[in-house]
Design goal:
- With about 90 residues, the chain is mainly beta.
- It has one domain.
- Helix content is about 5%, strand content about 40%.
- It has one helix and two strands; from the N terminus they run αββ.
- The chain has a two-stranded antiparallel ribbon with strand order 1-2.
- Strand 1 and strand 2 form a beta hairpin.
- The protein is elongated, with a radius of gyration of 16 Å.
- The relative contact order is 0.25.
Length: about 90
């Protein structure tokens, strides 16, 4: 397994963390308490959904391949100039 923090460096901000932005997701979350009118949450379950894009968690830089297509799946990362799959 390759860790994203080891193979990705955002060209805009230098961050090493990616996030997946999904649409059409059903999310359920256990409410564990309430304090000052604000819920406290526990376990979260996500079902369904479609990945819209992969982006830098810090600044939102969207990963694209060499043809300027938005990366949506792990198998597309090999075509992204900002991912170095050769690093271990």
């Amino acid at each position: 397994m390759k860790f994203i923090e080891e193979i990705f460096t955002c060209p805009d901000c230098g961050c090493h963390i990616l996030e997946e932005i999904m649409t059409d997701v059903v999310q359920t979350t256990r409410i564990t308490g309430i304090e000052d009118g604000i819920f406290e949450y526990g376990y979260t379950c996500v079902d369904g959904g479609v990945c819209e894009r992969i982006q830098c968690m810090e600044c939102g830089f969207v990963l694209k391949d060499d043809n300027d297509n938005t990366i949506q799946y792990a198998n597309e990362l090999a075509n992204c100039p900002h991912i170095n799959l050769e690093k271990t």
